[in-house]
Design goal:
This protein is mostly helical. The chain is built from 7 helices and 2 strands; from the N terminus they run H-E-E-H-H-H-H-H-H.
Length: 183
């Protein structure tokens, strides 16, 4: 009896991560529409889906998901906060956060892939990812707006800490529930 997988099964297995990457790109776009404007940087759900993509898809496919999302926004599709898009968004106050999604999803994915799922590991990866996102976003906010570092931290980090803590907890719980469905 032949034990080699069929061509259709091989094709389906190869398509699976691509479909999940596209799904997370779409979810990240939807997360941008849940925005609360509070200053130069709005509160959004985008980073929740970026973090979840890192946990569930790993570094390679999580990076693909975020790359698709950013490319869609760069070409002008209204996938960024407030239903905006275009290259100009990368030069504005939120540009550092948007571009920061790339290293964030990669680092989160690298920290969890190839290891048994553990909530503490997921939480540690998400905390590190959030700190990296703040580093990218607040630095860019300071440069673009000319704010002092304390003002950039006050505008681009402090108001987001409680919500990001909730997003991290929700992402850990969601990953625990969703991982078995992805295999």
């Amino acid at each position: 009896m032949d034990t080699k997988p069929s061509s259709a099964a091989t094709t389906a297995a190869a398509l699976r991560p691509m479909v999940f990457a596209a799904l997370f790109a779409a979810l990240t776009a939807v997360g941008a529409y849940v925005a609360i404007p509070i200053g130069p940087v709005p509160i959004v759900l985008q980073n929740f889906f970026v973090m979840l993509a890192g946990l569930l898809l790993g570094s390679r496919w999580g990076l693909a998901a975020v790359g698709i999302y950013l490319l869609a926004g760069a070409v002008g599709l209204p996938v960024f906060a407030g239903g905006t898009g275009g290259l100009a968004r990368f030069a504005g106050p939120t540009g550092g956060f948007l571009l920061g999604y790339l290293p964030v999803v990669f680092v989160i994915g690298k920290m969890v892939e190839g290891r048994p799922p553990r909530p503490w590991r997921d939480a540690a990866a998400l905390i590190l990812g959030s700190l990296l996102l703040y580093l990218c976003g607040v630095s860019w906010l300071k440069i673009v707006t000319g704010m002092s570092l304390p003002k950039a931290i006050a505008a681009g980090m402090v108001p987001f800490l409680p919500g990001d803590a909730l997003k991290i907890a929700a992402a850990v719980l969601a990953a625990r529930s969703i991982r078995p469905l992805l295999t």
